[in-house]
């Protein structure tokens, strides 16, 4: 394999034993473990696969990896349905493999963030099984949110709430004596019962889990659905319509409650038991002005900012988002985060290439996917051109950048997955409306040949299209203009150039062109329109260090970014 560079043995912990601020400007690479690299050939990516790719990660130049859930799971939601928070899915590996992964990453100077899923367990978790075996009102049921149903015989759900994945948010159980029984709340799939965070045992158990992984050497946690844990459900439940109309100001019964931060203050005490303190980043889809609460130093410390991910490739939107979020981060003392792609959304190369007429559908990408693929409505080349420009823009910003596996190859969303091979519950629970998130979770192409393009020795668990060959690591490695080499060079320069946590906008005189400079003179210029831009007009002295399209005679072509110094 062309990725077999030797791991250099400098790295953690000798070089940076306890830099408590390592995360503030980090480039973090998200691994979706079942689709990254499959060492044992069973079609599912695994920890040994990740270990074998550490040289690749090191060459890429990232500071940390975040690994999506690897816990035992029936995969009702891609692993976000956790059976046991302190073990590894046997298809993915063992705890011994995990220890070796930590060691190998640290030896390569790469930190490790694991995903923690506290809003819900899976329905196969021992607690939920115990709740099913135990009577109404028991301590075992109190770890979840059980209610009696309405109607004469309790046959109606306690409320008309709709789950995020579609369908009702309550499911009915069968009582131990075989009679139809109580209902439990699940904000996501029925296989993901919501925990009751008023229950002390639930809180204690998560503190134990945080220590379990921290003791094994993980550097931090990505906190799934961080805004969902605290709930305050009245006896008389609101209707869904009433719930939707309530203000999201910290007093909402189910989302983004102020008292969720009491939980994170306890977590912070655990993080601070370690040197350097363990870090955390909240996945909290909240109003932006509430984000600093999650990012506070007394709480999780950092929160995802999804604003760029939700924006169009548009100069004024990008500028406003950047200024707003840099100011916002100051209010919590944290650093901001930038995300363009992750395992839940249509890849950014594809989003920027959709040519649908309905802007709402274009954003979600759903229409393109339902319509059956690239030929119809995707400007694949244009999408990738804009994605490369957006990525260089992102990587020049102060704050940490979260990258998603495969974006460094310029991968597009995969539309052509047959229905009978789809896995995502959002597809099954919304027939005809959503194709779900499998299209960004297709296993990575490592080589131009082989049964799964080098992902493993056999077929991959989600089918890879033929065009993956052109985006394989092996193909891109030798092409100086490839997206892979662009990311590598960008990350290498970024590590050298990052300084301070601020930027200054430069006036470009063109509403489609943004330019900003960092305190050390590192300047980033992006043309969002198709028109080119003469860099000389900026008066920015220096030479072009890197650009997403070739710059000739100081002219930056349309839809591209250049770094100058
Ligand atoms: C988060 C995850 C998503 C998952 C959901 C439920 O949003 O990113 O993948 O389906 O939580 O756990």
From TrEMBL:
Keywords: Glycoprotein, Hydrolase. Residues 30-441 form the Glycosyl hydrolase family 13 catalytic domain. InterPro entries: GH (IPR017853), GH13_cat_dom (IPR006047), O16G_dom_2 (IPR045857). It comes from the Bacteria. SMART domains: Aamy (SM00642). The keyword Glycoprotein applies. The keyword Hydrolase applies. GO terms for biological process: oligosaccharide catabolic process. One of its GO terms (molecular function) is alpha-amylase activity. Belongs to the glycosyl hydrolase 13 family. This is Glycoside hydrolase family 13 protein. It comes from Candidatus Nesterenkonia stercoripullorum.
């Amino acid at each position: 394999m062309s990725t077999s560079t030797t791991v250099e043995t400098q790295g953690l912990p000798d070089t940076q034993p306890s830099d408590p601020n390592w995360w503030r400007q980090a480039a973090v690479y998200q691994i979706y473990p079942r689709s990254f690299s499959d060492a044992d050939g069973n079609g599912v990516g695994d920890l040994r696969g990740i270990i074998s790719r550490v040289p690749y990660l090191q060459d890429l130049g990232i500071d940390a990896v975040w690994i999506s859930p690897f816990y035992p799971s029936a995969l009702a939601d891609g692993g976000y349905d956790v059976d046991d928070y302190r073990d590894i899915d046997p298809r993915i590996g063992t705890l011994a493999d995990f220890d070796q992964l930590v060691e190998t990453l640290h030896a390569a100077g790469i930190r490790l963030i694991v995903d923690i899923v506290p809003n819900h367990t899976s329905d196969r978790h021992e607690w939920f099984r115990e709740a099913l075996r135990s009577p109404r009102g028991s301590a075992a049921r109190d770890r979840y949110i059980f209610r009696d149903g309405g109607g004469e015989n309790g046959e109606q759900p306690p409320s008309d709430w709709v789950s995020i994945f579609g369908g009702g948010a309550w499911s009915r159980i069968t009582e131990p004596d075989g009679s139809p029984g109580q209902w439990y709340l699940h904000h996501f799939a029925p296989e993901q019962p919501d925990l009751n965070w008023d229950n002390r045992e639930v809180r204690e158990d998560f503190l134990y889990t945080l220590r379990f992984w921290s003791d094994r050497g993980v550097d931090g946690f990505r906190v799934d659905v961080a805004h969902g844990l605290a709930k305050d459900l009245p006896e008389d439940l609101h209707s869904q319509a009433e719930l939707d109309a309530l203000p999201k100001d910290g007093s909402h019964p189910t989302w983004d409650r102020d008292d969720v931060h009491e939980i994170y203050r306890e977590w912070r005490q655990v993080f601070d038991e370690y040197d350097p303190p363990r870090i955390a980043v909240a996945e909290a889809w909240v109003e932006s002005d509430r984000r600093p609460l999650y990012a506070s130093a007394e709480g999780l410390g950092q929160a995802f900012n999804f604003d760029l991910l939700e924006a169009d490739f548009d100069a004024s939107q990008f500028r406003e988002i950047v200024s707003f979020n840099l100011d916002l981060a100051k209010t919590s003392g944290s650093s901001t985060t930038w995300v363009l792609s992750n395992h839940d959304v249509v890849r950014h190369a594809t989003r920027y290439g959709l040519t649908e007429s309905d802007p709402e559908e274009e954003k979600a990408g759903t229409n393109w996917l339902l319509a059956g693929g690239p030929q119809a409505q995707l400007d694949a080349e244009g999408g990738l051109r804009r994605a490369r420009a957006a990525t260089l823009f992102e990587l020049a910003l102060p704050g940490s950048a979260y990258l998603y596996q495969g974006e460094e190859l310029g991968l597009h969303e995969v539309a052509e997955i047959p229905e009978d091979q789809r896995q995502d519950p959002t597809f099954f629970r919304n027939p005809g409306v959503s194709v779900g998130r499998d299209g960004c979770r297709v296993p990575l192409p490592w080589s131009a040949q082989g049964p799964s393009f080098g992902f493993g020795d056999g077929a991959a668990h989600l089918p890879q299209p033929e065009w993956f060959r052109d985006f394989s690591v092996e193909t891109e490695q030798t092409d100086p203009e490839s997206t892979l080499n662009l990311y590598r060079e960008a990350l290498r320069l970024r590590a050298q150039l990052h300084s301070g946590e601020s930027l200054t906008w430069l006036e470009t005189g063109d509403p489609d062109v943004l330019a900003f400079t960092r305190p050390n003179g590192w300047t980033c210029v992006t043309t969002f329109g198709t028109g080119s831009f003469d860099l000389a007009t900026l008066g920015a002295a220096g030479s072009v260090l890197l650009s997403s399209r070739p710059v000739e005679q100081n002219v930056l072509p349309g839809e591209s970014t250049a770094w100058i110094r």
